[in-house]
Sequence to fold (364 residues):
Amino acid sequence: MRLYDLARPLLFRMDPETAHERACRALALAGRFGWTRELLASKFVVRDPALQVELAGLRFPNPVGLAAGYDKDCLLTRMTPCLGFGFIEAGTVTPRPQRGNAAPRLFRIPECDALLNRMGFNNHGARAAAEALTEAGRASVPLGINIGMNADTPPERAHKDYAEAFEVLRGFGDYFVVNVSSPNTGGLRQLQSRLALERILTEIHIRNKEKKPVFVKLAPEIETEQLSSLIPLLLAEAAGLIISNTTTSRQDVPPRWATEPGGVSGAPVRERSTRLIAEAYRVSRGRIPIIGSGGIFTAEDAWRKISAGASLVQVYTGLVYRGPGLAREINEGLVRLLRQNGVARIADAVGRSQPETVASQGRP
Ligand SMILES: Cc1cc2nc3c(=O)[nH]c(=O)nc-3n(C[C@H](O)[C@H](O)[C@H](O)COP(=O)(O)O)c2cc1C
Fold:
């Protein structure tokens, strides 16, 4: 039994957003002292060369990252690597500060290991994020910064918002993510169309003097045809895809949540995102790097996404249900799975459940 199994019932008595804020405050406090960071790192960080991944010109000590939305204001970048993550993604950051949707806006659905959120990009804006990152200094693992548009920006100016957030933050992130898939900002998912995305990526490209890798985060509902139409653009202008954001489907959640607006994460999005990873890997013939996200609670969940075509994975909801030891558990399990399957390192496991695609790439 984990210590977290004892703490969880107490935490789950608290309102979910309050519990999250308290956890963040505790992490921010712990992050201020070298000795607390070292203590936690000694407990949670798994070091094994088999876990190291090189992607988009960056070196990741392990393939398990913290997904966007946990640290929206870039306040935890010193601390979260000590929980054993191989990379961390902060944001979504919008150019201007905004409050997000009215509370309550975050709900637990424990019957199916899920969360439902309609936070709506609550954040202090790009300039505040830049200040926080200046104060924190460089993170000890690659840092992604996930950017989005403000809720009151008209759709025809969306690309300007991404450009502005990127301009303010470009010196701080090791990679960037264009989030066009949150279901909680009106019109955002329409930016997954080829023309809209091209406009955004072009605006970023003009400003991207350091050639920082730019990923695009997709919704699990994207149609195959639309995904296929994006491939040439992504190959030319993006470093890769993050698959996926939360789902608007209510198929796998109890009926009382059917009309509650927001995106569902955790177990109900697990298979959807894995299927979409496999599809993106197949239609791009393995040429577009993929970061897998959605319902990863165990090493086996991560392994399935890697086998489907993800080079790296990210977790959020699993952290709420399984606690701070999650990255260590997944990493230890991945080392075991690599050995069991006779695979030397993570990169060799990517896409292995899709032998035809791998073969078409000319890999062994
Ligand atoms: C409360 C909450 C807030 C989130 N906020 C963001 C966000 O701001 N930007 C984003 O790209 N994804 C956001 N996500 C989506 C996660 O990054 C992740 O892609 C998704 O939850 C699926 O992974 P999971 O099942 O491990 O949670 C959020 C998820 C949750 C639960």
